Amino acid sequence: MQPRVTAVLKTLIAVMILLLLAAQVWMIPGLAAATADRFPEFAHLEIPGVIAAVVFLVCVEVVLACIWRLLSLVRTERIFSSNAFIYVDVIIGTMVAASLIIIVSNVIIAAAQAGSPSILLVSILGVVVGIALALLVMVLRGLLRKALELEQDMSEVV
Fold first, then answer.
1. Does the pLDDT of residue 158 top 80, yes or no?
2. pTM of the full predicted structure?
């Protein structure tokens, strides 16, 4: 992979992390406060909602940080090492955790009768996408394992 491509990707990851941090600090608490003011009957959901949203975005940031590290391994041509599996496993676990956060949040919203069909639909979509991405990364993990085995076999032959 060309060094320019990895540099651009790392720059975009840094921008995404900064934007996510801004959302965690300013946007989410402000939106939650405005929603609690607008719908006082659901004000008790403000703090749990902020916590769930911030933890969900932390999951996204962890995945981005792992992708950053994998790009570093690509750039130094060490992607076919056991170190790569640590980051891939963290990505898979984080995606599953993010899906669980969506499920728990949806259950809390439903229990409080604060949701709508559109919230349920978006939640289901989020869970499906999260699980599908985790499964896709699991397949890619298997390909990485196979490539590592092939590289080791080739080094023995040479």
1. no
2. 0.90
